[in-house]
Amino acid sequence: MEYPFLLLMISLMALLYSSVGHGGASGYLAAMALFGLAPEVMKPAALTMNLFVASLVLYHLYRADYFSWQLFLPIALASMPMAFWGGTLMPQENTYQYIVGTALLLASAYFFVRIKYERDCVKPTLWIAMPVGAALGFVSGLTGVGGGIYLSPLLLWLRWTKMRTNAAIAAAFILVNSAAGLAGHVMTVNSWPADIAWYVIAALLGAVVGAEIAVRRLAPPVLRQLLGGVLVIAGIKMIFTV
Question: Around Cβ 215, how many Cβ atoms within 10 Å?
């Protein structure tokens, strides 16, 4: 009976996340945590859904000319090997729940803190961009969180992008790191979620709407705060049910 509600929640998460240029992994992890799915299902499922949703979002934003190769390449080149390495690691169930619960709580801050993004941008510096990419890549592969939810506020805070370019960079970052993390996971763990096709379909249905919103308008504040609240609840649930 709970299964249709899980798919509905995944679809809603995809809609909300894609509307701000993200793949939605932290939302999918939150949904799966609330419905009690096992860690060995959560990580590959979140990364797989990320691949499809981030691809769709990036396609729309790239066509609208919001993408910057100059900013993306150094971050991505540093992140992908680390995401692959993180993907090869599968912590014990209790440890994984603590890590993901903490990651969800940290990710929730993105939806509550307002950063001024319509400021003049400055040129990115490699000595910051590459370490940031490497660290977020590792977190992405280890947990199944795509990393974009941490990258986006950093890019805005550092004044390296404006909002829609930020969304395009985040979507591309999520895409390449989800692919690298999933490759690392598949090479070391011989398991795959049985219902992954249904998860992907549900996510794509939501992302079709969300990707259009990402190009045309920003997500309303109330939706962002609602999403942040879901991440808080799921994060607390994962940490305190270990």
Answer: 17
